Amino acid sequence: MSDVPIVIVSANAYDKGLDNPAGIPAEDFIVKPVNVAELLDWIGRRLDITWVTHAAPPAISSEIVRRPQLEFPPPAQLEALRELIKLGYMRGILQRLDEIAAIDARYLAFADAMRAHAARFQLDAMAQFLDKGERHGVASV
Predict the structure, then answer these.
(1) Please, are residues 44 and 50 in contact by the beta-carbon 8 Å criterion?
(2) Global pTM?
(3) Are 16 and 10 spatial neighbours (Cβ–Cβ below 8 Å)?
(4) Which of 50, 63, 115, 138 would you call most buried, defined as having the most Cβ atoms within 10 angstroms of its Cβ?
(5) DSSP assignment, residue 86?
(6) What is the distance between the alpha carbons of residues 16 and 28, in angstroms, rounded to a whole number?
(7) Is 56 helix (H, G, I), strand (E, B) or coil?
(8) pLDDT for the residue 139
(9) So where are the chain's domains?
(10) How far is the first Cα of the chain from the last one, in angstroms, to the nearest whole number?
């Protein structure tokens, strides 16, 4: 077998870790939708690359711009959504957001904010948004 690094991108989360005839290890499988940070990390490890990044511009202080508060749905809904995000199951994420929005109109802003991330396949941003909600109970939109 060649020393050329090979990555397998699969839409099936269950492919990762299964034996395969090529002998490709589990760490060389990436599940769709592709998490860019995971892919770059894999490339960096396989090609021995140290990535150089630019610092993000400073965020606008929340004290300067007051934004309306949104309400997060109940913890059981958040946990179910988090599991779908971990799997990268976009259709399931969107269905769960529809269900959350239907529970109560108070959750519409939450569902809309999450759909905006989903439209751009920003799974990490969705997970961070949920983390923020768990810490604070509400978040600015």
Answers:
(1) yes
(2) 0.54
(3) yes
(4) 115
(5) H
(6) 8
(7) coil
(8) 44
(9) 8-47, 69-140
(10) 51
